[in-house]
Design a protein that fits this description.
This protein specifically catalyzes the removal of signal peptides from prolipoproteins. GO terms for molecular function: aspartic-type endopeptidase activity. It is found in: Cell membrane. Helix content is 65%, strand content 13%. The chain has four helices and four strands, in the order αββααββα. It starts with a helix and ends with a helix. It is an alpha+beta fold and 156 residues long.
Length: 156
């Protein structure tokens, strides 16, 4: 359940914010909102504007990625709510950007990174959050497994 709830919330938030940006912020224009620098940018490539013009190819990659997540969830042992939420962030972000690539042939970006070296959107941020949560889940799983092994050795 946490997987699907996270996926849906990420997707709705991503698509809603992109719609607001497309409707109310002309491309190339910058505004400051609640301390955030927002610049409307349309990216027909991938991260860092690489491979411009291949948006639909990246949409197909995103769909395959989400199919892989669904396969993993079905065939691997459950690893807990944290990993489920992490996978929801990853799937929601991937599908959010895939929708843009399929419908518009490009992704709407607007969140200027604090370093000023990139413009992202909520889907990109969700993927980043998903990666961090997945890594945390992996560390927790590893540490818990080691603790269980030590406990078994102590009993035997």
């Amino acid at each position: 359940m946490p997987f699907y709830l996270t996926w849906i919330l990420v997707l709705i938030a991503d698509q809603l914010t992109k719609l607001i940006v497309r409707l109310h912020l002309p491309e190339g224009e910058t505004v400051f909102f609640w301390g955030l620098e927002l610049t409307h940018y349309e990216n027909a490539g991938m991260a860092f504007s690489l491979f411009q013009g291949y948006a639909r190819l990246f949409a197909a990659v995103a769909v395959i990625f989400v199919i892989g997540i669904l396969y993993f969830r079905k065939h691997e042992p459950k690893r807990g709510a944290l990993v489920d939420v992490a996978l929801g962030f990853l799937a929601g972000g991937a599908i959010g950007n895939a929708i843009d690539r399929i419908v518009f042939g490009r992704v709407t970006d607007f969140l200027v990174s604090p370093s000023g070296k990139g413009i992202l959107n909520l889907a990109d941020q969700a993927i980043n959050v998903g990666i961090v949560l997945l890594a945390m889940g992996g560390v927790i799983h590893y540490v818990a497994g080691k603790a269980r092994a030590r406990a078994r050795q102590g009993k035997g």
